[in-house]
Amino acid sequence: MIFVNGEPVDAGGEPTIRDVLLTLQIDPEAAGIAVAVDAEVARRGVWRTRTLPDGAHVEIVRAVQGG
Amino acid sequence: MTASAPLRIAGRSFTSRLLLGTGGFTRMETLGDVIDASQTELVTVAMRRIDPGAEGSFLDVITAKGVHVLPNTAGCFTARDAVLTAQLGREALGTEWVKLEVIGDERTLLPDAPELLLAAEQLVDDGFVVLPYTSDDPVLARRLEDVGCAAVMPLGSPIGSGRGIANPANLTLIVEAAGVPVILDAGVGTASDAALALELGCDGVLCASAISRATDPVAMAHAIRHAVLAGMLARGAGRIPRRTHARASSPLEGVPEFAE
Known about the structure:
heterodimer; A: mainly beta; Ubiquitin-like (UB roll); five-stranded mixed β-sheet; 34% strand; globular; B: alpha/beta; TIM Barrel; 9 helices; 10 strands
């Protein structure tokens, strides 16, 4: 089990960041989104390869109105 | 400096001296119309958790208008969170520019000076073009410039308060000492506040609530655009000094004397 934006998500054993995005029906190719894993930015280039250990805390953000 | 002189921040030139915050608009169509009416070239966005079901139209509206995007770190209370949020903004939007906000508390939304300075230093070291939202404290503004910020963005009054420029004397001190552009951020309530900022020597104004929460946001965007231009023109024109006593503008000689 990992945590995405504060909610538990079951994306299978040792999912990649891309797997998690697809599980949540978020297009990994979409512009304007970014991912942090355990309080560090995970660059788009590692989304296919980087696996997430059990208990990982993932934040997926995008630009919204503000400021 | 003339009204047509471009605003230059970190080597990038802007014809418009009005920056637009995109918060508070209830309709995307209105935001698009406001971008047109304001003629802004730089708009802020916030970074928030994604809602997978939401439509992605917001960023599309901005990119379709061809304006630069300035991600902010609104909602951050610590340097750590602000730095990480800035890095997420850079990754998501492909820009090294960030409007740095580190807030002290929710009631006032005033900047947390030590955390702000710490975050600014770390982000400059990480290659960011940092535009910090700061208080109207001239010493803090200088410290932010000293650590390498590309501009300083002092508040006129608290975010969303619409109280205008509460301390014009402090703002003048900031402007006098600054070697980087000074952008008035927060507090603008209507067009005259924006004009005053430019008259006092600010290089630009950022408006969000003043426009987005106006009864007619598009009309207010027009008004503030013209106010910014008027403020620049007035500054260049050189205002008369304030006087305690009246000074007639009509000749005192040759006044007719009428028979009793």
